[in-house]
Amino acid sequence: LSSSHSSRKGTAMSNPKYVCTTSEGKFTVEVFLDKMPITASNWINLAETGFYNGIKFHRVIPDFMLQFGCPNTKTGKGHPGTGGPNGGTTFTNLVDKKEYKRDSGGNIPDEFAAKLSNEVGTLSMANTGRPNSGGSQFFINTKHNSFLDFFDRSTPSKHPVFGKVSAGWVRRPLAEFDLPCAMLKHFGSSIAQDVIKKIESLGSRGGDLKKEVTMISIAKA
Known about the structure:
disordered N terminus, alpha+beta, 14% helix, two-stranded antiparallel ribbon, globular
C-alpha cells in the first residue's frame, strides 16, 4: 500500500489500512484520511508511535460497541476510560502537512467534515460529551448507532466516524483445534474466526469484560 497522501484536487487518495493484533486475534481497519484528515492523522500518529500497544479494551457492550484507547488500562493509573495522550503533544495532518497540538488534556479539535454514520463496523471517536474532548479513545460500532451521529439531532451525542473495520477474520491452523478427522477433511486447511464478534462476546450489558483483551500491536498493512 502506498504511503503517499495527496491533497491535490482531482487526485484520488488511497486510505491507509492497519492490522490490529489483539490477544484474541487480528482485524484490519481502513482509516478515512481522505474524509477525516485531522482525526485520522491523530489516530495514525498514536498507532505508529506505539501508543496503543499494551492498552486493553475497557468497555464492551454486545449489540452496541467495543471501546478502546485509554492508556490507564496499561499503566494502572487513573480510572479506565478517563485517560488520553499527554497534553501538548503534536501530530502532523498527513493531507495538508500542518502540525496540530493537542490541548492540555491531550484532546484534539472536533472534526465534523464528513457526514459518516455510525454504521456497523465503523470506528468512531469517543468523547466526554463536551466539545473538543476526543483524544485517543475510540469505539467500534457493532450495531448501526445512528443516534451517535453528530448530524443526528435526536440526542446531543456527537461522535465523528473516521474509519471502518475492513477485515475481521483471522485464519487459524486446524492443528490448533481438537476436531475429528472427518471434520478436518470437511473444513480443509484452516478455519476462519470473526475476531470482532469474539471480542464482543466477552462483553456485558454493563460494559465489563469477562476476560482482558489487549492490543498487542498496530502495524500498517
